[in-house]
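Researcher: I've got a protein sequence and the SMILES for fe (ii) ion. Could you write out the 3D structure of the bound complex as structure tokens? I'd like something to compare against our soaking experiments later this week.
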Amino acid sequence: MNISAFPALIARPNSLCDAVPFFEKRGVKKLFLLSDPVMAQSPHLVPLREALADASIGLIEFSDFAGEPKMAKMDEIIALTRAEACDGVMGIGGGSALDMAKIVSITLVADRPADDYWMMAHPLPPQSLPSVMVPTTAGTGSESCSTNIIADRNGHKGWVWGPETKPDLIIHDPVLSTSLPASLTGWCGMDAFIHAFEASTNRYAHASARGYGHQALRLIVKALPQAIADGDDLDARQMMLLGSAWAGAAIDQVGTAVAHHISHSMATLAPIHHGHATAIGFEVTLGWIIDGLAGDEAAIEKFQSIAETLGLADYRDLPQFVSDFMDSCQIDRSLPVSFAQFDKDKLIEQLLADHTQSMRVATAREVTEDAIKDIVTRLANLPVQAA
Ligand SMILES: [Fe+2]
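Model: Sure. Here is the predicted complex with fe (ii) ion in place.
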């Protein structure tokens, strides 16, 4: 699968068991299923287990993880799946579950540990195991993306990257996301919104990425407030899944920008939800980026077309639109208690670290060292959540 390819997609309610005929056709004998801990206990997986058994496909399940992917956890998973000789992979859950499952699908066909693929240290094997990814959070777009976020053994957030990790089939079953709380629906949805926005406006944005990005934005601005207001609205949930996947396809081609640079760096200081940190980073920097575009007609055109996609006449109104949209989605942009008195120098050091520079460099406005110090000061001045 190449970088711009979008995997096969099944998108309808109650479609989870459609994975079974796919694995049958691919001759899978023993499936590795990695799912979020909550999803593993839910009744939604019962029909899937029964259908796999009816098809005589063995099943090895794993859900013993918390937070974002870490290399030590990958060692455990790879050892298990190698010992069990799994020959197919399915991931069900948020971005962390899918990223880990995708890394398994490629690492299982190689002799190397997952470490060897962190930050592209070695080329990926050309083929992966047959795989199906089923997102339940409508945020990361991991299912349509080549990027798989994982922290190295020092806790530094990075990624395993390659189109070889994309699944063969995506299933968007909106029923699976109806139990997601409104706050998580909001943070995940904003993450997808910012993926689409950054991929449509960064220095590398091109027609294909912008096409996916703009479509994603149209869906997300319509569906996210409704998905938050009524978590059981299957149409809104379905639209959010598709918007998130299209946003994922957009960042797959051209990456993100400074909001994600901030978000990834914040995550190295203390635990914070990725969508929460990204929303904070986006709101703190969007007006600053737009203020610095004067004279850069190519960049202005990208922001202006986003503005028109969102129903605005002037791109300079985007910061207010975004803040209003976050308000309408009840997005909390205050800092978590763990960031009440965070180490500003440490965050600056992380924002300047070599391995995170791709997002900084991609930003439409040059993010100088002075700009980073100013951004960190503004982050430190944000209100803090009540304990
Ligand atoms: Fe993100």
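Model: Strands lie at 8-11, 30-35, 58-62, 88-93, 131-135, 147-151, 157-161, 169-172. Residues 207-229 form the longest helix (23 residues).
Researcher: Great, I'll pass this along to the crystallography team.
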